[in-house]
Specification:
With 114 residues, this protein is an alpha+beta fold. It has one domain (3-113): GMP Synthetase, Chain A, domain 3, CATH 3.30.300.20. 54% of the residues lie in helices and 21% in strands. The protein has helices spanning 3-29, 62-71, 73-84, 101-113, and strands spanning 33-41, 47-55, 93-98. It starts with a helix and ends with a helix. The model has no long low-confidence stretch (mean pLDDT 87).
Length: 114
C-alpha cells in the first residue's frame, strides 16, 4: 500500500482514538488519563497497534488500565467504526501497547545529570 495513504490512516485513527478515550475515560477507565502517542497500521489495514501513555488515578496501576482497555476493546472498536465509517471500508482489529518512550527519555536524562 502507498506509504502516504498508510500514514494518513494512522493519523486518522490516532486522532479519533484520542477523542474516544478522552470521552469514555470516566465511564470506562475510572478517570485515568490515557493519551494515544502512536498508531501503527499493517499494510493491508487489518491490524492497528495503538501505543498509549497512561496516568492512572484512584489507586489503579497501569496494568489495571491496560486490562480494562483489553476488556473494552470491542466497544472501543465499535466507537472507532462510528467515527471513521466514511473514510475506511474495513475497521482494523485494535491492540493496545504501553508507550514507554517517556520512561526511556527520563532514564537517559537522569544518567546525563550524574
Amino acid at each position: 500500500m502507498d506509504q502516504t495513504r498508510l500514514q494518513k490512516v494512522e493519523r486518522l485513527i490516532q486522532k479519533d482514538m484520542g477523542v474516544i478515550l478522552q470521552q469514555e475515560a470516566v465511564a470506562l477507565f475510572e478517570g485515568a488519563m490515557i493519551t494515544v502517542t502512536r498508531v501503527r497500521v499493517s499494510a493491508d489495514l487489518s491490524v492497528a497497534r495503538i501505543y498509549v501513555s497512561i496516568f492512572p488515578l484512584r489507586n489503579k496501576t497501569i496494568d489495571d488500565i491496560i486490562k480494562l482497555l483489553e476488556e473494552k476493546k470491542t466497544f472501543i472498536r465499535m466507537k472507532l467504526a462510528q467515527k471513521v465509517k466514511n473514510q475506511l471500508r474495513v475497521i482494523p482489529e485494535i491492540s493496545f501497547f504501553i508507550d514507554d518512550s517517556l520512561n526511556y527519555i527520563e532514564n537517559i536524562d537522569n544518567l546525563l545529570k550524574k
